[in-house]
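Predict fold of Erythromycin esterase family protein; 431 aa.
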Amino acid sequence: MKTTLPTHPLRSAADLDPLMQAIGDARVVLLGEASHGTSEYYTWRTALSKRLIQEKGFQFIAVEGDWPDCFEVNAAIKEKAESDTPASRVLRTFNRWPTWMWGNWEITALVEWLRQHNRPLPEEKRVGFYGLDVYSLWESLQEILHYVEKQGDGAVQAAHKAFQCFEPYSEDPQEYAQAVAFVSEDCEDEVTEMLRALRKQVRELQPDGLPAQEQKFNAEQNALVAVNAERYYRAMIKGGSASWNVRDRHMMETLTRLLDLHGPDSKAIIWEHNTHIGDARYTDMRDDQMVNVGQLARETYGRENVFAVGFGSYQGTVIAGKKWGATPEVMTVPEARRSSWEYTLHQQLKGDNALLFSDELRGHPLLEHTLGHRAIGVVYRPEFEQFGNYVPTLIPERYDAFLFFDQTHALHALPTHEDHHTPPDLYPWNY
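Predicted 3D structure, encoded as tokens:
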């Protein structure tokens, strides 16, 4: 019986050549991570993203981050004139817990590179950086108010009405959700009317070129965030998988809108946790009727046009919080438990890193059944890992390729001053 897994060495960016070839003409490349606090995941995603941009013409990176914060970064990397604002200061916009997720030195290096890459390019060719997530209810409402008041008539009344509906809840979406989850009085009609009015208003504008279209898109996207965030927080209080599905469907809708914005030949790079980019149909998520971006992207654009890359490691360190909103700390990631995907790779590779391809793994006797696959969220308790943190997975079907690192290190967080508004606890799905 064949027991050796087919692997490729992974030591430098040049070792990504086979992966670039396998990606081919895919329109959407999904880059995962097994935690939100591991340096190697960020640095290798950066290395691959640079090559996708330079060699295959990908137009934007979209991440598991809030739309308003990421759009500030997008504006900074597309500035016409050279800016003296360091990237580390630009990233202070990520000031809500978990601040380290995008406010870190690894992302600083990416932002600086994107600035330099964009500078000689015409505005319409500059690479973008966007947020896919749904949590920014209050920030998006504020952005909409600024926009409609600047534009004048149209959606002003609807925007003010929506904002006033949420005001009694002290900018706390969890307080709002708890108050309205089981009653008929909520703000759903107000945010839906705001989105309708805003779409009508922006349709009447005739922007010239992508930069102007992007500003119009920004306003409408903030309204869409408000609509789906309102749905998300109500569903979250009720429990079950509904809130997860609202969130991932929103992220997929945002990705589709971004691809449409950039034109029929556009290409997207997605940075999200493995639980979002690895096809949910090949995990136990399917049993709970959960969908994710990886599944939805394959269904929308065809499996041949979507390439999903999972990431994982055997042991090391990670930055996370011991509970929701806790001070982040560097924690030890213990050796992966036996009968897991990570343990299997450690045994096979004897401490080396590797690149693996699903086409080469299918039919292998070690992978005929599901294996536990490590998943670490922003909340992590290493002492309990043997009892959780593993997602039963059919590896060759969940991903198209996998990057394995035997030993990994904690992300390098920026010293960001944290805003006092901590988003609601997303347990048990703090990915």
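The mean pLDDT is 92.
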